[in-house]
Write a structure and sequence with these properties.
Structural class: alpha/beta
InterPro entries: AB_hydrolase_fold, Dienelactn_hydro
Radius of gyration: 17 Å
Protein name: Dienelactone hydrolase
Keywords: Hydrolase
CATH architecture: 3-Layer(aba) Sandwich
Helix content: 25-40%
Pfam families: DLH (PF01738)
Shape: globular
CATH superfamily: Alpha/Beta hydrolase fold, catalytic domain
GO molecular function: hydrolase activity
Strand content: 15-25%
Length: 250
């Protein structure tokens, strides 16, 4: 299983995460926000994993702005790709193919499903958001095969490893945050998602971000024209989506 370089390059943001560390099933998990029995959000991280500071900072933002408990589990079972060579485009120094083989969809899907099932027992409402690698997982979490549903809604930014079948079978409200330039979530997949989900009878929010590239929502450069605005807009869009569907009256 190969990945595009855009799935691994990017920038590390300033800031210090303020969450805590717990266990979720057998997984380590970063938790942001107070314990709220009414509402929770699970983040499925990208290829840089649960310890990449940017995604923890996003978890902190989501918790503050929704009042939900936000969980960021380690779905790579302790394995972490080295940030420094990847962010500086030295991909030859990293065994990416081996990493992807150890962390492919079939290997990690059971843990992702199990984490959602456990959180379902703790909270009245549960949503999921995933970026890049986490995108396919969110569609699978929202699939019609799960009765009752594993999550109440999903959001995904520049998803990767997504198959058309994943899109066809989603059965919960869907938000897609889609950069204009994306060699992974291609124009064909974007069109398929838009045309298919519109017919599925679920709430659907498609957000187009002109002029920015894959991975900008979690690894964008605030000094690059347009990326700071896109990061803020994507965060705000996700928070608004969460707040619609986390209400226990919804």
């Amino acid at each position: 299983m190969s990945v595009a370089s855009c799935c691994l390059s990017g920038f590390e943001w300033d800031g210090q995460p303020t969450g805590r560390f717990e266990k979720l099933n057998q997984l380590d998990v970063y938790v942001a926000g107070d314990s709220n029995p009414d509402k929770a959000i699970m983040i499925v991280h990208d290829l840089l994993g649960w310890s990449f500071p940017n995604v923890r900072l996003l978890a902190d933002h989501y918790a503050r702005e929704t009042g939900a408990t936000v969980y960021l589990p380690d779905f790579f079972a302790g394995e972490v790709l080295p940030f420094e060579p990847l962010l500086n485009l030295r991909f030859h120094e990293v065994d990416i193919a081996g990493f992807m083989g150890r962390n492919n969809r079939q290997v990690r899907e059971p843990d992702i499903f199990a984490a959602a099932k456990t959180l379902r027992t703790k909270h009245k409402k549960l949503g999921a958001i995933g970026f890049c690698y986490g995108g396919w997982a969110c569609f699978r979490l929202g699939a019609k095969e799960h009765q009752p549903p594993l999550v109440d809604f999903i959001s995904t930014g520049h998803p990767s490893l997504v198959a058309k079948k994943d899109i066809d079978e989603v059965a919960v409200p869907v938000q897609i945050l889609a950069p204009e330039v994306d060699q992974v979530f291609t124009a064909e997949l974007k069109t398929h998602a838009f045309e298919t989900i519109m017919k599925l009878g679920v709430p659907f929010d498609y957000q187009h971000f002109p002029g920015v590239e894959h991975a900008c929502f979690v690894r964008g450069d605030e000094k690059r024209p347009g990326e700071q605005e896109a990061m803020v807009r994507a965060k705000n869009a996700a928070v608004a989506w969460f707040n619609q569907f986390l209400s226990t009256d919804a």
